[in-house]
Amino acid sequence: MLMVGACAARPSTPAHAPTPASAIVPAPVPAAQSKVRLNHVLGHFDAETATAIANNAFVNQVFAHTQVQTVHSDGRSWTGFYLHGRETYVEFFGPRPAHRTGEGGIGLGVDTMGDLDELARKIRSPNAPFEVKTRTTVRDGRDVPWFKEADIRPERDGTWLESWIMEYVPEYMALNPDAARYAPSDITRARYLAAKYQPERLVENVRGVHFVMPAMDRDEFAQAFTAYGWTVVRSGEDAIASNAGVELRVTADAARHGLVELRFGLTRPANRQEIVIGHSMLVVGPDAIAVWRFDPAPVPAR
């Protein structure tokens, strides 16, 4: 469970700052962009960092709309700290019994009804069992359909980085208080976040993500995102997937695992600030960009 008590931040920068995204040769822009877009990113952090993020005044009052939220889905529940943009969001988790510090996830999404089933028909094979399932959540004390979900990743023990594709269902959207403002077929990520996104704050959307992970997780990431229609480039230890102005990078690292960088597009240029938050540093501005760097978790010795 996420810890939200007060916790002092370290007066130092992360020890392992990742290579700036500008040092990576950008992937070529595909002629036709994939319909599969970034929905959200999640990371599991040490207690000090998770607590400092949840209690940081700048993050909560200036940077973005945030909230601590407990979610119930298919008999499970989890509590995280959520940071919302216009079409994308981030989940921050502290230590949890069933998860290791350094684990991560990339949730993708489609914005049109039927797109997930269409993708499944294109890529399903005996070697890629891309099965679409419907997830539920609890609203007003009862289970209701929430979104359809599928992934191409093989199920195996020890996975550090997961990815999946979501398609929100109209039945869930119709339960929202603002449902009358939208067409029943509007299942877009922007509609899902409309009640939480606050354009007067700085964050507009997540534009870049960087994980360091085991080589197997990096290779599975590259395989899956190629199947999803993203442009994937391999460079040294990196696999870089790009689509619709978003770049996701996974670097193979045997000694450290975790989310090491988030890059945000902002609603407006901002004065440069460097804010230490637990074992992380948030750098805002001077342009309409913010970069948040995190210390990855060292892999425990066996």
Describe this structure in words.
With 302 residues, the chain is an alpha+beta fold. It has one domain (30-298). 16% of the residues lie in helices and 39% in strands. The chain has 6 helices and 17 strands. It has helices at residues 47-55, 57-63, 115-123, 170-173, 189-193, 215-227; strands spanning 37-44, 65-73, 76-84, 89-93, 104-109, 133-139, 142-150, 161-168, 203-213, 231-235, 238-243, 246-252, 256-266, 273-276, 280-284, 289-294, 297-298. Strands 9, 10, 11, 12, 13, 14, 15, 16 and 17 form a 9-stranded mixed sheet that branches. An 8-stranded mixed sheet has the order 2-3-4-1-5-8-7-6. Strand 14 and strand 15 form a beta hairpin. The radius of gyration is 19 Å and the shape is globular. Residues 1-31 have low confidence and may be disordered.
